[in-house]
Write a structure and sequence with these properties.
Blueprint lengths: L6 H25 L1 H14 L1 H30 L5 H63 L1 H26 L3 H34 L1 H15 L2 H42 L5 H11 L6 H16 L1 H27 L7 H45 L16 H4 L1
Helix pairs in contact: 3-4, 3-6, 4-5, 4-9, 7-8, 8-9, 8-11, 8-12, 9-10, 10-11
Length: about 400
């Protein structure tokens, strides 16, 4: 007589087999960790054009939507009867026009700012001998009034001089061939960056042209892998991420441009040296929340102090006023309260993400952490609602214990 087939033993055997395979895979990854990291690094490098394309498409897609909806769809509906053809042609023309506009604006800004920056750097290089003479004069005056300080500075400078000569003779000259190789590698890296940029722009065109299809494919895969409840929750989190990033980056870019323009106007009126260079530096670093303003202001103040200490003091006063106006008036008006984070959490996010991911982490820290903060806040609010407890933070400031009255 044949025995009945017991499915629970088969299920247990398959479970044990899967667990064994998972253990073997984890062991392989653990003992070959360096090799796995090297492979992941190569994959990440190969995906660089994709990252560029995603960034370009994400930044330009809102403008493509506006141009397509308000300009080309109404225009081509009068010329073409087929609705599908109108959509396709309008999208293609909108992507081309927006991309050309972005490249034209970028080229115009480069041509507007680059000559001023080059002149500033050239003037700085030409003025270095004068700065050196000023430092020597200060040292001579100091030696006359304070000989003990002058003797210490002389001894220190001689030590530095001996170490510098030794470094030149023993390290720099023998490694000159390596320096040349490094320069050639740098040129190749620059060509690689340019190639990645071109490929990234091409990828961004495909992404902007078929963004609805790509989003639909991602949603289809999401609902096929996850239960409907968790897939819907994931979509909600994705929408929060998109809103947070879009509001933050668009507002921050506009804010940085305004700050750069105000800085240029104010410094030009004050006749501050290197006005264009400092304005560009302040505007670019202002994209980084909290720390960015100081990252640009400190070296700028040092440059102005080298030329004229009095103007350096004036620059510090002016830049503090500009940054305070930006932090308290311009920034909040443009970005608004969309981030929903306090100053402590902004600082916390920048420190953590900056230490983990560098400059990119500092730039993306605020919108990413805002989404995490909002997700945790909504989750805790739902939990408190189920327990019949108050959801606002103020109710817990003086609460020692929860009574039945608090529940009601």
């Amino acid at each position: 007589m044949k025995k009945k087939f017991d499915s629970k033993y088969v299920y247990a055997g398959l479970t044990a087999f899967c667990v064994l395979i998972a253990v073997l895979i984890c062991a392989f990854l653990f003992f070959n960790f360096d090799g796995v990291l090297a492979i992941l690094g190569k994959i990440n490098s190969a995906l660089t054009p994709v990252y560029i394309g995603l960034a370009v498409a994400y930044l330009l897609s809102p403008l493509v939507n506006v141009v397509e909806r308000n300009v080309f769809i109404p225009l081509f509906r009068k010329m073409i009867k087929k609705r599908k053809a109108v959509r396709g042609i309008s999208r293609a023309v909108s992507v081309a026009v927006v991309l050309l506009m972005a490249l034209a604006v970028l080229f115009w800004l480069t041509m507007l700012v680059l000559p001023e920056v080059v002149d500033s750097i050239t003037n700085l290089a030409n003025s270095l001998p004068e700065y050196y003479r000023n430092i020597v004069n200060v040292a001579q005056e100091l030696s006359g009034k304070h000989p003990e300080i002058a003797a210490y500075l002389k001894e220190t400078s001689e030590t530095i001089y001996v170490q510098l000569i030794g470094w030149l003779q023993n390290e720099l000259i023998p490694t000159s061939t390596e320096v040349l190789g490094t320069v050639s590698d740098g040129l190749m890296d620059a060509l690689g960056v340019l190639l990645n940029l071109v490929i990234g722009i091409i990828i961004s065109i495909y992404l902007m042209a078929g963004k609805e299809t790509f989003c639909a494919q991602a949603k289809r895969m999401l609902f096929s892998v996850l239960p409907q409840k968790y897939a819907s929750l994931t979509l909600e989190i994705g929408k929060d991420i998109n809103r947070s990033f879009a509001r933050f980056f668009s507002g921050k870019i506009i804010d940085s441009i305004i700050v750069a323009i105000i800085t240029f106007i104010v410094l030009s009126i004050a006749d501050t040296p290197y006005t264009a260079l400092i304005s560009v530096l302040i505007g670019v670093t202002n994209i980084i929340p909290f720390f960015g303003q100081y990252i640009g202001a400190v070296p700028s103040a040092f440059l102005v102090f080298l030329v004229d200490p009095v103007k350096g003091i004036i620059f510090v006063i002016l830049i503090i006023i500009i940054l305070q106006v930006d932090g308290n008036i311009i920034g909040p008006k443009i970005i608004g309260e969309s981030i929903g984070l306090g100053s402590f959490w902004i600082l916390f996010a920048i420190l953590v993400f900056g230490s983990l991911f560098g400059i990119i982490g500092m730039i993306c820290a605020v919108p990413v952490f805002a989404v995490v903060y909002k997700t945790i806040k909504n989750w805790s609010a739902r939990r408190l609602e189920r327990k019949g407890l108050p959801q606002d933070t103020q109710s817990y400031q003086r609460m020692g214990r929860v009574s039945q009255k608090d529940r009601n």
